Amino acid sequence: MKSLFLVLLFLAMNFLSTNAHAQTAPTADEAQDFMNKAEAQLADLSVKVQRASWVQENFITDDTQAMAADAIDEVTAATTQLVEQAKRFDGLALSPDLTRKFMLLKLGLTAPAPKDAALRREMTTIGVSLDGDYGKGKYCRKSGECLDITAIEKIMSTSRNPEELKELWAGWHAIAPPMRKRYSRFVDLSNQGAREIGFKDTGALWRSGYDMKPDEFSADLERLWNQVKPLYLSLHTYVRWKLAEKYGPNVVPPEGPIPAHLLGNPWAQEWGNIYDLLDVREDKGGVGINVTELLKKKNLDPKGMVKYGEGFFTSMGFEKLPPTFWERSLFTKPSDRDVVCHASAWDLDNKDDLRVKMCIQVRGTDFVTIHHELGHNFYQRAYKEQPFMFQNGANDGFHEAIGDAIALAITPEYLHKVGLLESVPQASNDIPELLKQALDRVAFLPFGLMIDQWRWKVFSGEITPADYNKQWWALRLKYQGVAPPVARSEADFDPGAKYHVAANVPYTRYFLAHILEFQFYRALCRESGYKGQLNRCTFYGSKEAGAKFNQMLAMGQSKPWPDALEVLTGERQTDAGALLEYFVPLKTWLDEQNKGKKAGW
Ligand SMILES: [Zn+2]
Fold first, then answer.
1. Which of 383, 468, 510, 530 is catalytic?
2. Which residue in the list 310, 400, 433, 527 is annotated as catalytic?
3. Which pLDDT band holds residue 5 (cuts at 50, 70, 90)?
4. What pLDDT score does 281 carry?
5. Share of the chain above pLDDT 90, in %
6. Is 342 a catalytic residue?
7. Active site residue 416
8. Alpha carbon distance 530, 511 (integer Å)
9. Of 28, 199, 337, 523, whose CA is between 20 and 30 Å from 100?
10. What average pLDDT does the segment 233-237 reach?
């Protein structure tokens, strides 16, 4: 569901300058010259790397994998070398832009590698093997039928048999224990790489990408979590109560944590799939809007769905996607070969060669994901005139939030405007819609936060391998209020059963994005002149909102993110206020329903 944006590959280059000034103190002009050459070559190499990766993900064979892995190893080596060479400019008085570029260069690798070539290769090899283990992971039932994660997700989204759900949950988590030793070695090697370029550990390097000190950033996340926690608790209380009614107190303790296998998702990260268990029809008379049915009624194919996504952006004044987008993207799963179906957005040439790769099914969740992916593409194109080092999101949360802010504007009013929905339901029926949104977007928040809370502590050494699993579940209990359905021990490695841990993709970006998307959404609503209940706002067709949006997007990563945020919202702080405002009617409704029920676990 969450899509990867290929940023980690962009810092690729072979910088083989003859260092003529090594003996004398470097000047600001030399630093500028160094960076100019670096950017030119980085841009060049990034295209090659992205082409190799595109081919690999569209035609998975041993050969394309080896070629992509070679490219990644080369990138890691070149970047490591470049950061090393850039050290001689440390402490030199440079322009703010140039200072920023040197900082971004240092932060370019998600997994910084040791300088030692043998250790670097060991780390890269482990990284690829963990990613591969996850990709190949399967659970085989007693009947001999083997299920990959897509099949498991599908069954877990609709099965209401707790024994079957428990079996699948435990079966999927059994893919991870073999990763444990390699993962801990990977952590050590990456930490060594981080220390060699001046960071305390890899987690500190990740936190340095937010234009704040790592500790300030952690405190800021805690502030945001405290803002949204009461809403999460109301949702948790209601869902636990309904699940206890459905499955009985022996399966769901009415005042304890929710067993993690019952929420419609192998990680309990988004709960939208169990909406039908929540009894909303009887209470409110409205059933919400079934987008899947609307799409099917219109006989839309995957390409037609993407056209609607593009249409939202062009209605706001953005230019149409180029013809190559339609020629080169992958919209449907090919029947004759393996592809990586995990949805992603690409920018092959850092200019106009934008693409989406996604195995689209005609259903509501995919309609939302299309908007998410196109948000990456329109962002990429908006900042293409920036220097290479600034061709990125203001921070990684911004990049994830753009398309989701648009997706929030897929309201009944919008669906009616574009002819997908015949009539708009009355405002008194908003609760089903809001509850559906909350089951995905609010339920996700503590999960989005806890992944890196665990990982940062692993990188810092505060969590040791002897406690990997215990601490994982301590955090899942603390933030999410969920518990494992079967006994766990240190023979397990449950973090490895989550893609972003196995593949070493930072996760805090998704927590931030889920807050920023509402902040962007509210600002775009204001800009469009909308006045009314926030959850009913759509800015479809608003050129004013589009112009303001573009102004922020075009900045790329050229300035600290609060500057970019201010351009669109007038605010300089990430703020969950917009999210809370959006869900005010739901919060009121939940608290009425929950009266007399214990909140928390
Ligand atoms: Zn994404």
1. 510
2. 400
3. very low
4. 64
5. 74
6. yes
7. no
8. 27
9. 523
10. 98
pLDDT at 450 over 80: yes
- Which is it for the CA torsion 176, 74, 101, 556, positive or negative? negative
Query: Is 343 among the catalytic positions?
Result: yes
372 is catalytic: yes
* Per-residue model confidence (pLDDT) at position 429: 72
Three-state SS at 437: helix
Q: Is there a catalytic annotation at residue 196?
A: no
Higher pLDDT, 20 or 209: 209
Give residue for tokens 């807050």: 515
- Euclidean distance between CA atoms 78 and 323, whole angstroms: 34
pLDDT of residue 131: 81
Distance CA 154, CA 71 (A): 34
State pLDDT tens for residues 558-573. 999 999 999 999 999 9
Question: Per the structure block, which two tokens stand in for 20?
Answer: 């003529």
**3-class SS at 253?**
coil
b/e sequence 542-556, b meaning 16+ C-beta within 10 Å: beebbebbbebbbbb
CA 580 to chain centre: 21
Known active-site residue 376:
yes
In 202-349 the beta strands, taken as DSSP E runs, fall at 258-259, 344-347
Residue 491 has pLDDT above 60, yes or no: yes
- What is the C-alpha to C-alpha distance for residues 401 and 540, in angstroms, rounded to an integer? 17
Q: Is 510 a catalytic residue?
A: yes
Please give the single-letter amino acid code of residue 1.
Answer: M
Q: In terms of Cα–Cα distance, which of 212, 6, 25, 11 is closest to 106?
A: 11
Is the distance from CB of 497 to CB of 474 less than 8 angstroms?
A: no
Intra-chain end-to-end CA distance of the chain, in Å: 28
Supply the pLDDT for residue 302: 95
Work out the angle at residue 365's Cα, subtended by the Cα atoms of residues 428 and 503, and round it to the nearest 5 degrees: 135
- H/E stretch holding 23 reads none
Choose the catalytic residue: 173, 342, 399, 514. Answer: 342
Average pLDDT over residues 449-454: 98
CA of 63 to the centre of ligand 1 (A): 27
Q: How far is the CA of 262 from the centre of ligand 1 (A)?
A: 26
CA distance 433 to 424: 12
2 CA to middle of ligand 1, Å?
A: 6
Q: Of 232, 262, 237, 227, which is closest to residue 247 (Cα–Cα)?
A: 262
